[in-house]
Amino acid sequence: MTDMPDPAQNLIRFGWEEWVALPDLGLPALRAKVDTGARTSALHASDIETFGSAQAPQVRFTVHPVPGRDHPVIPCSAKVVDRRMVTSSNGESESRYVIRCTLTVGGDSWPIELTLTNRASMASRMLLGREALKDHITIVATDRFLQPELSYDVYASGRVRSAAPNRALRVAVLSRENNYSTRRLVQEGEARGHTVEVIDTTRCYMAINAMAPEVHYDGARLPRYDAVIPRIGASITAYGTAVIRQFETIGTFCVNGSEGITASRDKLYAHQLMARHKIGMPNTAFASSPKDTDSLMRLVGTAPMIVKLLESTQGKGVVLAETKKAAQSVIDAFRGLRANFLVQDFVKEAAGEDIRCLVVGGKVVAAMKRTGAEGDFRSNLHRGGSAQVVRISKAERETAVRAARAFKLNFAGVDLLRSESGPKVLEVNSSPGLEGIETATKKNIAGLLYDHIAERVRPAPVRRGKLI
Description:
alpha+beta; Cathepsin D, subunit A, domain 1; Dna Ligase, domain 1; protein biosynthesis; ATP binding; nucleotide-binding; ligase
């Protein structure tokens, strides 16, 4: 006769308080009060805000898992499965968002529903109601911590950051154009479950004050974004960087900060910055007085040479002067227009080609060689140039990374020339286009950018001493 299993042996014993984990939310340790008198489970949450479409709404919120402590702060997001009225033990009713996530206790895990509410006045950051308790759980009301104990110290280690789940983000793309790059950023972000909103930079306006700085748009305050991707056109650099500074003041992660964008757009300052960081570049000279024309050209070298407007973009305002006399004529013409310009050595061995290195998060993720159209020394794709994937050297890779770092840019297009004396940086672009390099390299650059954003907005571990 076969012995029947004893149901009592399969029972899980819970005390009135237990250590639990919510791995889907990036919460590896929480103390939860077990209350069979409550039907619905609840999690202490703040900054609760819905986002996404009406058909598939999501909610994001922050959790302070350690009672009585402001840190750590764990950002979370989840799909909204319901919204219901919940009556607390003191008789007050509140409409709460309901989410679904995995509960882990000891070595056992199962899905539960959670309501989000403010439990700041409660000793436990989580309430475990009877709907979340499985049939084979028995409650020992006189005991606590009958399951394996956890520790808040996990939040003071790198593990909480590395184990944080990929959560849905709310991202703003600052752009005035419906071009390939903007569309790809929206497409890739939404494919990853993020909400991506395109914001016309010039229609933003700011409430500048010490206590509650805000960015407004079309008559309403913009929501709190997890990240901002600036795509600021050269014609609105001043206003665009002011908007980015406002987001930085609020504390929003901006893929490229205002300081880096401003530096990259000022070609004179950009070259001075690269010189300060000992980054190779063509010999460059700048002067204001027309009396210094000959001396200016001598500083650069012999003809041919490049005369470049400081405000030039996409190859516009860049002239190749093949003789000294031609250079004098171009310089005189630019001065007659009261235009600011640089004079640079022409790197003959580059032969009308340059290398665009795409740097994301301090790494070169893609590179292409751009060749100018027939008879044009400029290799810009907007001017009819062509592109193909290229293998770059270690020196070129290191130069591109150093250049992006000098400008404090997380996302940059670094244009290099191959010269006999090594790679020379032509320009650092803070709003590099995606179409040319994605087409040439067949790489998902937009996806790599979102990988970097997700990494940057993960919760950072706090110093261990704060939790003791």
